[in-house]
C-alpha cells in the first residue's frame, strides 16, 4: 500500500451496494496494510442522547450535556463507544493521536470530563465502528464505491449530524451530488 488515508474522509458514492453505508461520511481513524478503521459521522442513533448513554454506564455527571446526539459509528461492535475529540483541555493518556490534533478514545474518563463541562470543545461519541480487512478498502476505492478527501473539522464535529454532511463533504471537493452517477464509465 503506497498511501495512508488516516485522518481523511470517505464519502460513499451511488455505486455503494451496502445500504448501511448509503450516503455515508466516514472519518478514517486508522489505515494501514493491516486494514482500516473509521467512524460514520452522519448517522445519529434515533432517540439516544449522551445523557441516556451516561446514565446507562453509571456516570452521574451528565446533566450539562443535554440532548447531544450519539452516532452509529458503523456495524461492528455496536455496543462499544468511541469518543473522537479535539484534545487540548483533558489529559487523555489512553487517546490515540490522529492527524490535525484529534484524539480517539474509548475511555469513560473523557465522557466524565464532558459531563462535568470540562471536556474538549469539539467531540463526538459513536457506538460501533466501520472496519475493512487488508486491501478491502483499497479495492472498494478502485471500484468507485468511495471518494476520499480532507476532513474539515467543522464537518467532523457538526452538532447536527445527518444527510447534509454527505452533501457538504462532496461540495468540499467541488462535486455537486446530483451529478454523481451510479454507473462507472470506461474509455
Give a brief rundown of this model.
With 187 residues, the chain is of the alpha+beta class. Helix content is 19%, strand content 32%.
Most strands sheet: 10 strands, mixed
The helix fraction, in percent, is 10-25%
Total strands = 10
Give unreliable regions as ranges. none
Kindly report how far apart the N and C termini lie. Answer: 26 Å
Oligomer: single chain
Question: What sort of overall outline do the alpha carbons produce when their principal axes are compared?
Answer: globular
Proportion of residues in β-strands: 25-35%
What is Rg? 17 Å
Structural class assignment: alpha+beta
Average pLDDT metric: 88
Q: Order of SSEs, N→C?
A: EEEEHEEEEHEHEHH
Count of alpha and pi helical runs: 5
Amino acid at each position: 500500500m503506497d498511501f495512508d488515508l488516516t485522518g481523511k474522509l470517505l464519502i460513499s458514492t451511488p455505486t455503494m451496494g451496502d445500504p448501511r453505508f448509503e450516503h455515508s461520511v466516514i472519518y478514517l481513524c486508522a489505515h494501514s496494510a493491516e486494514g482500516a478503521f473509521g467512524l460514520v459521522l452522519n448517522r445519529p442513533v434515533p432517540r439516544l442522547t449522551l445523557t441516556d448513554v451516561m446514565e446507562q454506564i453509571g456516570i452521574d455527571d451528565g446533566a450539562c450535556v443535554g440532548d447531544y446526539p450519539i452516532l452509529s459509528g458503523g456495524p461492528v461492535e455496536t455496543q462499544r463507544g468511541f469518543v473522537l475529540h479535539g484534545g487540548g483541555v483533558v489529559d487523555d493518556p489512553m487517546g490515540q493521536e490522529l492527524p490535525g490534533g484529534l484524539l480517539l478514545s474509548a475511555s469513560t474518563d473523557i465522557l466524565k470530563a464532558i459531563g462535568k463541562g470540562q471536556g474538549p470543545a469539539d467531540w463526538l461519541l459513536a457506538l460501533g465502528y466501520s472496519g475493512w480487512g487488508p486491501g478491502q478498502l483499497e479495492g472498494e476505492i478502485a471500484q468507485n464505491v468511495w471518494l476520499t478527501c480532507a476532513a474539515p473539522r467543522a464537518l467532523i464535529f457538526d452538532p447536527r449530524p445527518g444527510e447534509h454532511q454527505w452533501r457538504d463533504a462532496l461540495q468540499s471537493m467541488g462535486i455537486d451530488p446530483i451529478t454523481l452517477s451510479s454507473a462507472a464509465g470506461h474509455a
